[in-house]
Amino acid sequence: MRKSVSKIGWENLVDTYAYSDWVPYKTDRFGRLYFERVNSLGKREKLGKVIDFSSAIGATSFGQSNWKLILAWVMQARKIMQINNSFMTKPTVELAQKLNNAVGHGYKTFFVNSGAEANENAVMAATYRENKVNFKKPRPYILTLSDSFHGRTGLMRYATGQSKFRDGLYLDVDKFKQVSVNKPIDEVLLSKTHAIMIEVIQGESGVNPVSKDFATYLKVVCEINDIIMIVDEVQTGIGRTGKMFGYQHYNLCPDIVTTAKGLGGGTPISAVTMNEKAREGIGPGKLGSTFGGNAANCAVANKVMDTLTPKFLDTVEYKGNLLGGQFQHFKRGDLIKDFSGVGMLWGLTLPDGVKASHVKNECLKEGLAVLTAGERLRIMPPLNTSKEAIYDGIDILEYVLRKECQK
Length: 407
Ligand SMILES: Cc1ncc(COP(=O)(O)O)c(C=O)c1O
Prior knowledge:
- This protein has twelve helices and 17 strands.
- The chain has helices at 2-6, 55-58, 67-79, 90-103, 115-133, 156-159, 187-191, 212-225, 295-307, 310-332, 356-366, 387-406; strands at 23-27, 33-38, 44-52, 108-112, 141-145, 176-179, 193-198, 201-202, 208-209, 228-232, 256-259, 270-274, 338-342, 345-349, 368-369, 371-373, 376-379.
- The model has no long low-confidence stretch (mean pLDDT 92).
- The structure holds pyridoxal-5'-phosphate.
- Residues 57, 114-116, 119, 149-151, 199, 203-204, 232, 234-235, 260 line the site of pyridoxal-5'-phosphate (PLP).
């Protein structure tokens, strides 16, 4: 099958993903995806319509080709699409203001392009501060949690030959220490730590929420020890959990919040929103990005932010409760072993012997796109999915799980 798919270009891509031979080629106004495949005779074959419970892993949180977002992009692109960073554009400043207001008083935002970059810049901001505030004896470590995922960049500053891009940073990969989720942190380690970065719900490892007690413990630990708390909201932020940010379920007050994925509604943009304390070490030239704050992408993100009114977030919570109720029903019927999540972000543990990747493929054949995360099935419908589409998707999932459990 791979050979025939290669006719439409598969072999041009670096082989880093387990590419499906199902090729999405359009969407409709109900948000369904249309797929095709090149069959073994080399002919294009149309496959069924698919309900999307995957949202491009949270990026297309308002569907694949949302007209309001497209229009926002085009209208801005006709004026100014991208400009060098010595100039501000209206959509960029407006978006920063919206994010700052959503996080809290005194925050400011810096834009980059992807989740990993946002986290990297958050960590750099924390480290710049440490090296300025505690310059005599900077605390070296940044703590992250076991099973976390924060992205795949990080080394290019060290590849860069001009040392000015590293001055004042003294950051290297040995400075990251992983600590266990939901367990107290060693006091000696804490005394050598200047930042802690967490996801409140660990998306990539299976949609595992940290406990409320642990989140409160981290909050207190950061306050007492003057540690910068970075909350990675790349997957959980921008309405995904029924609140603007996942940390709002936990009553946290992070120094730095990173967002990406859903912020751009399908366009690449990410943001690092920081309070005054986190900005202490930042000045002109310390952080930078050519495309960061791209005017057209910011115009789309402004539309996304405008859509996330309290009333809209209530609908996400409501639909999330519908999903949660259905998963409870699955669990009672032994179709799944367990589930966790909130809003439009759920992880399902399947019965022994039922593989998530297999269920994902079977769902696609039956007309439902879902995701996996670790060993779990991950469900992330677009936030504006209709109630009817949710029920239709759940019916397909139930059908596939019943079939697999009976094997
Ligand atoms: C919590 C979290 N942080 C960071 C990232 C990395 O984002 P990106 O792939 O946009 O670099 C992801 C991606 O899945 C994520 O889920």
